[in-house]
Structures are given as C-alpha cells and as structure tokens.
C-alpha cells in the first residue's frame, strides 16, 4: 500500500470510529508503529487530525480564525445561545467567554435582565455597551487576536478578584477522555482560571466540537458541570460525557 493510500485509510478510520490507535493501525497495515507515527505527524501538520498519546482524534474546525468561524453552524449556535440565556437569573454575576457562540449569547439577553457580565472579550463588552440594565466588567490583558480575548498576567490578576454564579466557557474540543481543549496555551490557562472562579461552568458545544480535540487542554471533561448540545446530537457522543458525571442539555 502506498503512503498516500495508507493516510487516506487512516482518515477514513478516524471519521468512522472517532479515534485511531497507533498500535492497531500498525497491525492493520502491516507496518511499524514508527511508520504510523510518521503518518500521523504528517497528517497533523496538514491540520487533518489531532495527535494524542497513543494515536489521534478528529481535529476541531473551531480553531479557524474568528471571521471564518462566525459562519460555521450559526443556526445551531444561536439555539445553544438562547438556551444558555435562559439559565441566567436576575442579579447574577456571569462570566462570558470570547468566541462566536458567546457573541450570539449576548445578543439574546433580554432587555429587562439586570445582571453583571464579566468578560475578557472586548467584542462581548462592546456588544453589551447599550444594554440598559447589564453592568459590564471588562478584564484586560494581552489581546489574543485569534479569539479576540485578553490573556496573560494582567488578565489572570483580574480573574482572581471574581466570584461568579455562572461561567459560559468557549472551547474548540469536547472529548470524554481528552477533555476540554482549545488552540492556544495561554487561552487554555485563562479558561481554567475563570472556571475556578465560578460556581458552575457551562460549555456550549456545537456538533463540530464534540469528540474532537485541539492542541491545548483546558481540563478534564468534569471541569464543566453542564454541556449544552444540539437537540439532534447522537447518543453515542453524549453518553460517555454523562457517564463522567456531566449534565448534558439538548437545545
């Protein structure tokens, strides 16, 4: 079998099974694990999969630039955002992450909601500037341009001064064993810090993020107490999440 054929077969297996293991691929194709690891390295370099210990997982398309992500699954993301808004009670302090789904969430806030929104996203803050009753606290720091959020030491300092009721976390990957992940090291750190300052962390996960992984781990799947998914999401994707003790809500 040619290398190109073997790589195509690896991608087919990944799409079919949701993960591939280097040892199993080695046996299947009758080649060494070193050869398989090289194949996986090259496929990962092309952005076609995400390598993990022992094999590979599907790569999340949510690591694309912000402008391109705005058009991905926009209808589904709006449904998730509307359901999330229903979780916010008057008087609460709510942390809203950056990202395209969060941008939709703040647009859905009712005009009569009185709450405090804490965010490290300038886009989210600006979107709330004209809301009549929402108090906005903007955390500053170094701007991570991909997601348009503040990261770094200054952001961490701001985060440490908060006790929030809810945190709506944005992620690019949700996987029962690989956990919650994103595409930047510092962004992963700020998300962990935000989760530690909230009584409940909620992840809004459109279908492209489920059973996928990105380069940097935010934390185990149990870092979130609730994950909101699309109503039509397959049970085989949500059962392992629920088995880990995380509440799955369909919107």
From TrEMBL:
* Entry keywords, A to Z: DNA-binding, Repressor, Transcription, Transcription regulation
PANTHER family for this protein: GLYCEROL-3-PHOSPHATE REGULON REPRESSOR, HTH-TYPE TRANSCRIPTIONAL REGULATOR SRLR-RELATED
The gene it comes from is glpR_3
Q: Can you say what this protein is called? A: Glycerol-3-phosphate regulon repressor
Tell me one Pfam family matched here. DeoRC
Q: What is the lineage of its organism?
A: Bacteria, Pseudomonadati, Pseudomonadota, Betaproteobacteria, Burkholderiales
Q: Tell me where the transmembrane regions lie.
A: none
SMART domains (UniProt xref): DeoRC, HTH_DEOR
**What are the GO MF terms of this UniProt record?**
DNA binding; DNA-binding transcription factor activity
């Amino acid at each position: 079998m040619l290398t190109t054929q073997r790589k195509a077969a690896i991608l087919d297996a990944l799409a079919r099974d949701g993960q591939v293991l280097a040892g199993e691929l080695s046996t299947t194709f009758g080649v060494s694990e070193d050869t398989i690891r090289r194949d996986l390295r090259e496929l990962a370099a092309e952005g076609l999969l995400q390598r993990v210990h022992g094999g590979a997982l599907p790569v999340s398309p949510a690591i694309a630039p912000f402008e391109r992500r705005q058009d991905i699954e926009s209808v589904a993301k709006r449904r998730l955002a509307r359901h999330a808004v229903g979780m916010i009670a008057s008087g609460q302090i709510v942390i809203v992450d950056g990202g395209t789904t969060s941008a939709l969430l703040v647009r859905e806030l009712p005009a009569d909601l009185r709450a405090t929104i804490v965010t490290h996203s300038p886009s989210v803050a600006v979107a709330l500037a004209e809301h009549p009753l929402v108090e906005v606290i903007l955390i500053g720091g170094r701007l991570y341009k991909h997601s348009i959020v503040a990261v770094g030491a200054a952001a961490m300092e701001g985060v440490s001064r908060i006790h929030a009721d809810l945190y709506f976390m944005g992620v690019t990957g949700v996987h029962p064993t690989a956990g919650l992940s994103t595409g930047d090291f510092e962004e992963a750190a700020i998300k962990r810090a935000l989760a530690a300052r909230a009584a409940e962390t909620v992840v809004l996960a459109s279908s492209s993020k489920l059973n996928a992984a990105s380069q940097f781990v935010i934390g185990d799947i149990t870092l979130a107490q609730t994950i909101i998914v699309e109503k039509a999401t397959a049970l085989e994707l949500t059962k392992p999440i629920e088995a880990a003790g995380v509440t799955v809500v369909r919107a």
